[in-house]
Amino acid sequence: MPDAKMSSGLSRRMFMTASVSAAAAMPLVNSPTRAAQPASAKPAEPRDLSAVSMRINKQTYNLALDNRTSLLDALRDHVGLTGTKKGCDHGQCGACTVLIDGKRVLSCLSFAVMNQGREITTVEGLASTDGELHPVQQAFVDHDAFQCGYCTPGQIMSAIGCINEGHAGSEDDIREYMSGNLCRCAAYPNIVAAIVQARDEIRRA
Amino acid sequence: MNQAAPAPRENQGDPVVRIDARLKVTGQAGYPADIVTANVAYGALATSSIARGKVSGLHTKDARAVPGVLDIVTYDDMDKTDTPKFGNTGASSIGPLHDKTVFHDGQIIALVVAETFEAAEEAAMLIRADYEDERPAASFDSKGVKMEPAAGKNPMFKEDAKAGDFDAAWADATVKIDEKYSTPTQHHNPIELFSTTAIWQGDQLTIHEPSQNVTGWKVELARQLKLDPANVRIVSPYIGGAFGSKGPMTARTAIVAVAARRIGRPVRCVVNRMQAFGTQTYRAETRHRIRMGAGKDGRITAFGHEAWEVTSRPDPYVVGGTSATARMYNYGAVLTHVSLVHADRNTPGYMRSPPETPYVYALENAMDEMAVALGMDPVEFRRINEPEKEPIGGKPFSSRSLIKCYDQASEAFGWSKRDPKVGSMRDGDWLVGMGCATAIYPTAAAPCAARVRLTADGEVRVQCGSHEIGTGVRTIAGQMAAERLGIGMDKISVEMGDSALPPAPVSGGSISTASVCSAVMKACDAIRGKLFAAAAGRGAPLAGSGNAKLDLKDEEVVTETGKSAKLADVFKAMQVGAIEEYAEFAPKGSSPEALSKLYAGQSEFHGGENDEDSVKYAFGAEFVEVRINSYTREIRVPRIVGAFAAGRIMNTRTARSQLMGGMIWGIGQALHEATEIDQRHARYVNRDLQDYLVPVNADIKQVDVILVPEIDHQVNPAGVKGLGELGNVGTAAAVASAVYHATGKRIRDLPIRIDDLIG
């Protein structure tokens, strides 16, 4: 593991090593207690690498990232969690939706360095370790709430957010509060039916 | 059971859950840009800012100075490769880096490769070009377009359909419609971005890219790069929506491959949403003139359909939907003519029911107008003009259940409660309108190969180089094997989306289920034959059952007299651990070269209107209710009902989802979708998902799909008609018909927007 000095002085060689090990889904620095240089310490050059430490699916990741790297690209290219999808990179499609501290957020519109210390949940972090699916995941299977499956991780994360926010009270509410997640295969009626089932199950639990 | 899993009716398969459902809800389905690759470099495209002219200079110094930039591939760098070819596997003949000529806005001028995505994007934006620019011709009405008859310009469209003496019939007709219709430019916009990842290992090239045609691409890419096709592999196990956009390979694939070879590292280029509008294909805008003549009895006596389609300067892309519209009803005399209009645009390409969506929109609108002119119910008008034989070649239909579709859909919809008087149905501030239209899609199939392996412990592996674009074909291929081999779905695995697998045709033209299932069935039947011979042989578990009919059920060979033998015991008797069969299917009427063409990446389609014995189509009827706010003119579609007959339905769950998605596409075509073009610069304006409108969840309410039972033994061994493209045909016309019923306004140009209804 490189002893990454998280500033503009990082060499390309070290940067490369960091990228590669991150791509293999390994935390860059193992010690979760190691304090990362706060991005706000000095006005950073965009190309500089900043240290950022996040909890992703209950695991700590210490990363050295270009200040311009979106949370989405950090997840996909630096952590190796490719379940979160890029559909527009502009906050227009919802495919990249993740939970940050329990709230649904478009990860393409969030710089990774803004998420210091936050708790990120991606689609990979939903099923329990024994393989049991989250009620929303199971409901999506039951109601065929996808076809190609590409927008599905974002739909599922958004659905969890929608239910947690209390915006899944009626089918009309669900339609409205799920309209930030485009499904080009147009599984919308099935998505609504799935969320109704999951909502009821979560309420019962 | 829930709405997503309709109970199967006659000749319909179980609503089996998708074989890859768990992978898709857990983020484990690996789409091509998800494949983790060590030491990957990132590519970003730079594209032209003019639509017509020449690149006279390219400035890359600033881009090269960006830290992390590894290489820039541009003019001269592709010289050792061949230019792309336009056709079924190639999107365009334009080799953007082979020639400094600019044919359209957004044409690739360079590919930047860098250590990071951020560096590649930054550098790509710093590339500047000098142009000798000329005034471009954007579309139909622009100065400088070139018009030519479409027939014969493209092997896909050989001739204009004709029957009888149209001029005489038109002159004699007592009731006449002569109207013009148009459909706009549309982009597929699958949510998955287009991407190419190129990995070289020595002279072996692997491409991870979403593709609807891995075998075709392998051969075409090898040709461009002058490689042995055996050294090229295209991998595309999951595709994040395609709708035709990932059928033909674009020029980018070879450029990324060259970049990876130059830097000696894997390169991944994910094209941003904006650049996809110019570097991929799209549905071109069309115009139509329809002349329809009828007698007072409602019988059509004359049908004329002239149409104009836009294409690029060099490529004769044509859809020619008159092939279907000319065979829809019992017209009498028919005259059709399709023209191509070459403009300074990227080459269009297949988009979900490419010919039928625009052409049937025009026809079905005219049908509605004629019904109004005759004072006749639009369903009754179609019933009166139901043909015995198709009017062009006089051939029978292999099966045609259109009227059954109308009957079942109209009953479910409550059509009888519709007051035909325009503007007569109102609910508070909302004007209510109801309309209907016909859906039609040709049934075709193409040669396909598959390999099936059954082991002694009852595990089945199906391998076929087809493509899971969301249709459910992976599940359906598994269902076919499960049924033929008597094995549960939990013991079936299906591999697809890899050119190393047995070749399958392009996943286009709604041919996959028919072609793949026919090949899988053939391989399974060969396994059955071996098992049955062994089971009934001398000293075998079912010795003496030679003449009895054998079958496979629940991992047993069973006789019709109730005797059975465990699969494992039959394998023991055979002294083998696994039986593997490789089968090749070719549709009836295939040429002697059809199978060798399959391996060469060319799909020979059979069916539709081209077969000798009959014409083959799937049909449907769609009914739509619209509500239009009397003050704001906001248009809503609270419900839509479609009934479809498509031969054997393999899986009612995936079939319903396909048709439902198609109908929602149709609503999008009616009310939302249009790529706006800056006419001065021949440039797409709304190049993102904020301004290119597609239906969102809140736009859609009740969508009902009725799967009408139909049996057709003529179409292919599996008895399957494709339905992936059927659902969105006709929908827009049904919406337009409902809008007319609500408001009295006949909107003939799509999409129908609020501003069309004001005033």
UniProtKB/TrEMBL annotation, chain A:
Q: Which residue ranges traverse the bilayer? A: none
Give the matching Gene3D superfamilies: 3.10.20.30, [2Fe-2S]-binding domain (1.10.150.120)
Keywords for this entry? Answer: 2Fe-2S, Iron, Iron-sulfur, Metal-binding, Oxidoreductase
2Fe-2S ferredoxin-type domain residues: 50-126
UniProt entry tagged with the keyword Metal-binding: yes
The answer, when asked if Transmembrane is one of the entry's keywords, is no
Q: What's one GO MF term for it?
A: 2 iron, 2 sulfur cluster binding
- Cited Pfam families: Fer2, Fer2_2
The protein depicted here goes by the name (2Fe-2S)-binding domain-containing protein
Please name the source species: Mesorhizobium ciceri biovar biserrulae (strain HAMBI 2942 / LMG 23838 / WSM1271)
Q: What is the lineage of its organism?
A: Bacteria, Pseudomonadati, Pseudomonadota, Alphaproteobacteria, Hyphomicrobiales
TrEMBL record, chain B:
Q: What is this protein called?
A: Aldehyde oxidase and xanthine dehydrogenase molybdopterin binding protein
Write the record's keywords in alphabetical order, separated by commas: Molybdenum, Oxidoreductase
- Aldehyde oxidase/xanthine dehydrogenase a/b hammerhead domain location: 26-135
GO molecular-function annotation terms?
iron ion binding; oxidoreductase activity
Family annotation (PANTHER family): ALDEHYDE OXIDASE 1-RELATED, XANTHINE DEHYDROGENASE
One Pfam family from the record: MoCoBD_2
Question: What is the organism of origin for this protein?
Answer: Mesorhizobium ciceri biovar biserrulae (strain HAMBI 2942 / LMG 23838 / WSM1271)
Q: Say yes or no: keyword Endoplasmic reticulum present.
A: no
So which domain of life are we looking at?
Answer: Bacteria
